[in-house]
Every structure is written in structure tokens, then in C-alpha cells.
Amino acid sequence: MFFERHRIMFLLLCVLAVLIIFSLVNIIYCSTVLTYSEYEIKSNKVNNDIKFVAISDAEGNTFGKGNSRLAEKIEGANPEFVVILGDMVKSSNGNFAGVKNLCSSLSQKYPVFYIPGNHECLNFGGYDDYLSVLSSEINKTGAKFLINEMTEYTTKNGDRLTIAGLKGYPFYEYDAPEYDNEENHLFQSYLDQEDENHLSLLLCHQPETYMWGLENYKIDLMLCGHTHGGVVRLPFVGGLYAPEQEWFPKYDKGYYSNGKANMIISSGLDGAGMIPRFNNPLEVTVVTIKSTK
Ligand SMILES: [Fe+2]
Q1: What is the distance in A from the centroid of ligand 1 to the CA of 192?
Q2: Helices 68-76 and 97-106: angle between axes, nearest 10 degrees
């Protein structure tokens, strides 16, 4: 009986030790190793396949000297262009050297489009308008900072795309009576496009906008970040927590569609402050638009 009880205790301690070691290895892996998440979206609006990369939410985290490891990982996907979905800086210090280095090296090879997240929109000490300073510095690298702005891009194979960057939510009536705000004007500008047959992308840091009827604005695909993939991801459950959506978020990572509009959420490149990522690797998101023509 005595030996039996000791044997059970020993087995339980072994199981506990294995769980602790597994968790530590998982946390270290998920905070250091850059991985690809790959998605395919079918479209009859392009004549050729188009591959691009999306990254998000490094929050001041950098990879290698001058962000070289991140740049190499992005280059490894061989994208046509790169979109940066915000929160690449950290609101506690505002240091943008890492993301500026990244934009400098990437924009020598690809068109780069960068939109602000909530961290970029905060004003840091020492700046009258941090976002203006940041966007001006990023634009100097050759990347294009989009703040409630739409731009057109033609791929190497001649497919025309619309790419727009949203700063905030378009439907905050209490901020702007009759929704007379820049964000809503940007949404409306999708409807004003003369050519309805080209692909329209929306870059929007926070995914909650998805619920507001992208298809009504002819937006084919929205790309987001902000959620950090729910930070801790549990098997069969998904992400544990995301800002705004809080516990067990519905939209935390991956591909979503309502049959008309599509959304991809990049789970980003950092944890959430003191809380490390678990079962949720750092992500370079690779999207291929597959032509169905
Ligand atoms: Fe965010």
C-alpha cells in the first residue's frame, strides 16, 4: 500500500514535470520563432494569382539587427507587396526605429503599405502629433503610410487593386454626427470607384469592423491585427482574450467569411505585455489571391 501510494505520487510528479517543460518550450517557441500562416482567397476579379504578406502587432518587438530576421522571413515568402497592419510601435515609448528599418529594407524590394493601430494613434511625450511624425518618417523610407486613404496598385502582371487604410471606426456617430468623419468618407469612396471589377482590399487594424457589412461597400477582403491571436490559444477553444472582444473572442485569428465579404486576422508578432503567447506562434501572414478566371 505504502509503495503503491508512492508510485502514484511519482507518476503524478512526472506528468506535472512533462507539462511544465512542454509549456516552457511552447512559450519560448511562440515568443522567438517566426512562422508563416498561409491563406488562399479565390477571386474572379484578378487575371493572375497575387501573393502578398501581412504583418502586425510587433509592439516594439524587433527580430535580429535592424529587424533583419523579420525582413528575411518576409522575403522568404516571395510576396508581390507587403501590408503592415498597425501596432508596430509600443505606446509606452514610441520608438519607431525597428519598424522604420524594416520599411527601409522591404521597400527597396516591394511596395509596402502601413496603417496605424491604436498604439500609433496615441500621442507620446515630446511630440505634438506622433502620428504625423511617424507617417512622415515611414514615407521617407519609400513605404506608403495610409491614414484614411485609398490608393491604387497595379501588379507586375497588370491586375489593378485598390488598397485603403482605415484609422478608426467609421460608424462612431457620437464622435461625428451623421457619421461625418474621415473613416466613413473612406468607406463611401469604395462605392465611388468607377471600375467595380477590380479587387478592393481594406487594411483595418481592429477586426470588429467586419460585422458592419463590408459587402455593402464592395470590399472584397479586409486584413486586420490587434487581437494577438487571443494571446493564449487552447486546443478546441481558440484564443483566450482579445482587446475589445474580451474573453473567448469570436474573431481572433485566421480567415472569416460571411459568403460575401472576407476577413483575415494576423495574429501578430508579440504577446500582451507580461502575458506570453502560448500555442500561438509569431506570425508572418501570407495571402494568395487565386484567380478563378
Ligand atoms: Fe491594437
Answers
A1: 29
A2: 40
